[in-house]
Structures are given as structure tokens and as C-alpha cells.
Design goal:
The protein is α+β, with helices and mostly antiparallel strands. The chain has 2 domains: about 5-125, ATP12-like; about 130-280, ATP12 ATPase (ATP12-like fold, Orthogonal Bundle), CATH 1.10.3580. Helices cover about 50% and strands about 10% of the residues. It has helices at about 40-50, 90-105, 115-125, 130-140, 155-175, 195-200, 205-220, 225-230, 235-245, 245-255, 260-280, and strands at about 15, 30, 55, 60-65, 70-75, 75-80, 90, 110, 150, 185. The strands form 4 sheets. Strands 4, 5, 6 and 7 form a 4-stranded antiparallel sheet that branches. A two-stranded antiparallel ribbon has the order 1-2. The radius of gyration is 20 Å and the shape is globular. Residues about 1-45 and about 285-289 have low confidence and may be disordered.
């Protein structure tokens, strides 16, 4: 059985905050990582630890009205992406939360503690003009979703997977008309085109929701869990628990691995940020057939 941790992949269009020179422009705060292969999470953590944290160069972080939403300002100047796009956020509550991340920084700026900022920048720079492409990439997870591949034993794990996963699959079948095929073990099973199309059609259409769901999907290994979250079929806690059924079962039997627990905690921070974005934008998900 493939554990959820092994399915972890970083969001492909996530952007990283970089250390600028002494006269950097606001747009140089970020560097686009689009097109690069997803790094191993452990190597990513080691690389982050090796990178010197940049000094805080502003006094105040704020929010101001902007066309299409709200802008984040540092000492009154709006932050921009590498392509000079102003970071405009559609929700005031979300904009306030992003500004709070900047305000909470101490003498140095630690991007690890700024998941909402990274998501906001990635949406503006890498998703708003590529919503269909990002949705298509997200939809590929329906072809080999975590929920399809079941343990054959022990009975307790089989029952626990069914308790967490079956309600989502039943909802997909009954509400969306997406009837998927399950398999025991890890051998790939080709899913019906009709099911894939039905699930794809139930994804939201706005950039912010798509980006948030893509992050949820890559962190959980399940586009179906992300879709259930978007439609209110499962809440954030239920989705996170469902994504870690195998991992939690092993921890109960063999004990908790401290390194794995630390990586999971880091993923949880990004997951909670994505959930917050999804809740803040409140974009209605597309209805199924």
C-alpha cells in the first residue's frame, strides 16, 4: 500500500521568496518555480535551512483597496510579482491574513512561516492566466487517486480505509455520476473516461479555488478528497485524516517516526493555508452533471 507521505508533491506553480539586493523592487521578492521538477520534500527542507534568511526591510504591512480586490502593501508600496503584476487578493479577510504574515516577521523574513503569501503570489503570477492548464493538471490525479487503491489486509486497516474513503466515493458516484473502479494493492487501474470527465466537470473555475485545491490534492494525494472539501461533503479535518489513514495505522502499530512527523507538520501548515484560501474566496464550485 502506498502511504500518503509517499504521494506528497509540492505545488508545481508555487513561488519562493528570495533574498534581494539592497535596492530590490517589490516584484523581486518572489521567484517563479514554474516548470521546474517538484523537489523532494526532505531536500527542499535542507535547502531552505541552508539559505540565509533575509533581513526585514520594511516597518509596516498593510492592505489597501485595488482594482479587483485588495493589495498588500509594505510601507505603503504594493508588492508585485517577478513579472511586475500587483498582488491583488479578492477577499479582504484573506488579504488581512496575508498582511499579518508580513507583519509577524521579526528581524528576518522566514518564507516557511508565510504560506498564504506564497499561495497569493503563485496565483497571481502562475495561475490566473493558466486556470485551465492547472485544472487539467489537477484532474490528472483522478486517474490514480489515493482512494482507489486499498489494502488487502489486515482487516482493521481495510475497515478504516473504507470508513474514511467510501463516503467520498459514494458521493462522487451518486451526485456527480463519477463511478470509479477500486483495486487492492498498488497496480494501476484505468478509470472510465466518463468518471474522469464527471469529476473534472465538478472542479471550480476560478484561479484561487483551483490553486487551493491543487495544493490540497498534492498534499493529500487525492483530488477526490479535495473535491469533497470544495463541495462541503467533507470538512478540513476529515480530509486530512482520510489522507493519512495508512500512515496513522502504521504509527499506531509501530510508533511515530519523529522525522516523518515533522514533515507532516510542515505539510499541515501548507494544507491549512490552502483551506483558508478556499474558504476565504468562497467561490461556488461547479455543479456536477
Amino acid at each position: 500500500m502506498i502511504l500518503s507521505e509517499n504521494r506528497y508533491a509540492l505545488f508545481r506553480i508555487m513561488l519562493a521568496i528570495q533574498r534581494p539586493g539592497p535596492k530590490t523592487h517589490m516584484r523581486e521578492l518572489f521567484e517563479e518555480a514554474a516548470g521546474q521538477p517538484p523537489p523532494d520534500p526532505r531536500e527542499s527542507a535542507r535547502a531552505s535551512a541552508r539559505t540565509p534568511l533575509r533581513k526585514r526591510f520594511y516597518k509596516e504591512a498593510g492592505v489597501t483597496d485595488a482594482e479587483g480586490g485588495f493589495a498588500i502593501t509594505l510601507d505603503g508600496k504594493p508588492i508585485r510579482t517577478p513579472s511586475s503584476r500587483q498582488v491583488v487578493i479578492p477577499s479582504r479577510a484573506l488579504a488581512d491574513a496575508v498582511a499579518a504574515e508580513w507583519a509577524a516577521q521579526g528581524e528576518t523574513i522566514d518564507p516557511v512561516t508565510m504560506p498564504l503569501t506564497r499561495i497569493a503570489n503563485s496565483v497571481v503570477e502562475g495561475v490566473v492566466d493558466r486556470v485551465a492548464l492547472v485544472s487539467d493538471d489537477l484532474a490528472k490525479y483522478f486517474e490514480s487517486d489515493l482512494l482507489f487503491y486499498r489494502a488487502g489486509h489486515p482487516e482493521g486497516l481495510v475497515a478504516r480505509e473504507a470508513a474514511h474513503w467510501d463516503p467520498v466515493l459514494f458521493w462522487a458516484a451518486e451526485t456527480l455520476g463519477a463511478h470509479f473502479i477500486l483495486s487492492e494493492g498498488v497496480m494501476h487501474v484505468k478509470q472510465p473516461d466518463e468518471a474522469l470527465q464527471a469529476a473534472r466537470g465538478a472542479l471550480p473555475g476560478d484561479a484561487w479555488s483551483v490553486a487551493a485545491l491543487h495544493i490540497v490534492t498534492t498534499l493529500t494525494g487525492s483530488a477526490l478528497l479535495a473535491l469533497a472539501l470544495a463541495h462541503g461533503v467533507r470538512d478540513a479535518g476529515q480530509v486530512w485524516a482520510a489522507a493519512h489513514v495508512d500512515e496513522d495505522w502504521n504509527a499506531e502499530k509501530w510508533g511515530v517516526d519523529e522525522e516523518a512527523a515533522a514533515r507532516r507538520a510542515a505539510r499541515l501548515r501548507d494544507y491549512e493555508a490552502a483551506v483558508a484560501v478556499l474558504a476565504a474566496v468562497k467561490a461556488p464550485a461547479a455543479k456536477g452533471p
